Amino acid sequence: MEMDSSSKAAALELFDVGPCEEPFRLGYLVGRKFSSMIQSRAAADLVLQRQLLPFARTPQAEPLIQAICSANRQRFPAHWEELLGTAEGSGVPVLHIILLNFRKEILPFIPKEETTPQKEAAADDDDDDDDCSDVLVVNDSMAIAAHNEDANTALLGHTYLVRARLPNGASFTAYTYAGELPSCAFGFNSNGIAFTLNSVPPRLEEIIAGGIGRNLISRDLLEATSLEDSLDRICSCNTAVGHSYNLVDVISRRILNVETASKNRFSIHEVGKTPFFHANMYLHLQVEQVQDENSISRQRRAAQLSAESKSAVLSILGDSADEKYPIYMTGPTLYTLCTALIDVDERTVSILQCNPKKGDVSYVLPIC
């Protein structure tokens, strides 16, 4: 089932907000602005409705959720207040907003039921994969980070852009999933720092119960003042699950890929002339991980393609030659919501809401 891109193109709205003296107020205003969308996403999200909420009502869930709330509230009190404000403004219960923002930290601990053909079919609809693809390159002629934001088709029409001015005079812009903190996808700020994100699949034994959530870390990253500050914010947290961060500094013309895991483990790869493709598996941090055939196939296909120009890079992200595991996804479960092109030399972020090979740009946003 392929889906028309016109509906998702019309759905992406840019909301200017702030400055707000209180983080709760910032979250409240975003929640109020997109209340209908957040309510719709919460009602239609099968992972929330069929897995997270039923688990949250069980006795074994209580200590896990309490530990997550306590650790993240203590580490990031301002961002926690922003999360509570989002719930208040949207009219969605706080528990639902917490579960949406910490789904990756909770899902591994939900007991797996015995499978039947019927349950396996339902599980396909409940897929929580968010497989993204990135092409990074820094050479004499260009320095770019290009990113496909891939998610479950349930996210179509449930995303927006938040451009927030902060009390200290800085600002950030973030592609945001309805009900979640900015941003679990990509964003940038007026200090010249931009980033895109790739999920990674550590095995259960690599995951820490009650650790810091990825959404809180990436929200904090939106306020980084430099590349070094970005690394400190990423690598000093006791993350529960781990993540892949593609960091861009337009001031120093540098791009880094940083892979993290629990117990404060991380690995840094500096991108140079050799194009660097990252899907959804660890590439340089030694972590026990689930073998993801989708990611492996995209990695293999990207290695066959040229990345000698910006248009060639966009063509990689628009490639669908592999019908089972295309780089550019059009359903039935996963969909490329948009493509972001971060151009370091032009200091812009371009957002394309159709196949990037077509070159149709919805937004061109200045970074600083």
Structure description:
With 368 residues, the protein is an alpha+beta fold. It has a domain of 95 residues: Penicillin Amidohydrolase, domain 1, CATH 1.10.439. The protein has 13 helices and 14 strands. The chain has an eight-stranded mixed β-sheet with strand order 1-4-5-6-7-8-9-10, covered by helices on one side. It has a six-stranded antiparallel β-sheet with strand order 11-2-3-12-13-14, with helices on one face.
Which short descriptors sum up this protein?
single chain; 368 residues; alpha+beta; Penicillin Amidohydrolase, domain 1; 8-stranded mixed β-sheet; 6-stranded antiparallel β-sheet; 13 helices; globular
Alpha-beta content class: alpha+beta
Low-pLDDT stretches are: 1-9, 114-124
Element-level helix/strand string: HEHHHHHHHHEEEEEEHHEEEEHHEEE
Query: Major sheet: order of its strands?
Result: 1-4-5-6-7-8-9-10
Cα Rg: 19 Å
Strand content of the residues, in percent? 15-25%
**N-end to C-end Cα span:** 40 Å
Return the average pLDDT rounded to an integer.
Answer: 93
The major pleated sheet works out as: 8 strands, mixed
Helical segment count? 13
| CATH topology annotation of the domain at 15-109 | Penicillin Amidohydrolase, domain 1
Helix content: 25-40%
Shape: globular
Beta strand count:
14
CATH class category label of the domain at 15-109: Mainly Alpha
The CATH architecture term of the domain at 15-109 is Orthogonal Bundle
Topology (SSEs and partners):
Blueprint: H1 6-11, E1 14-17, H2 23-33, H3 35-44, H4 46-56, H5 61-75, H6 77-90, H7 94-101, H8 103-106, H9 117-125, E2 133-138, E3 143-152, E4 159-165, E5 171-177, E6 186-189, E7 193-198, H10 214-221, H11 227-235, E8 243-249, E9 254-261, E10 265-270, E11 276-278, H12 293-303, H13 310-317, E12 334-343, E13 348-352, E14 363-366
Parallel strand pairs: 1-4
Antiparallel strand pairs: 2-3, 2-11, 3-12, 4-5, 5-6, 6-7, 7-8, 8-9, 9-10, 12-13, 13-14
